Amino acid sequence: MAIADVAVIPIGTEGPSVSSYVADIQKILKRYEEDGTIRYQLTPMNTIIEGELSVVLQVIQEIHESPFSKGIDRVATSIRIDDRRDKPSTMEKKMQSVKERLK
Question: Record's superkingdom (predicted)?
């Protein structure tokens, strides 16, 4: 199971707000989540996506393309992937591991 940290940055927007682009991306992610292929979590600075690596990469490509459909000519996407294969890993398990060490 892969966990990816993704930030899609449309370049050349009319103003400083990008919330409409983020909302469009969240709609795409929701569609994948509803069919059970990924789980995701929106944060103030990025989105965390969890699923099989091949699906996560497919989703990343689709969300990267999203701002282009609104007339943006340039998009920068930052991706960081944690692909652990020695044992099952989830967003919650990673957080719980840290919380246990803080006790």
Answer: Bacteria
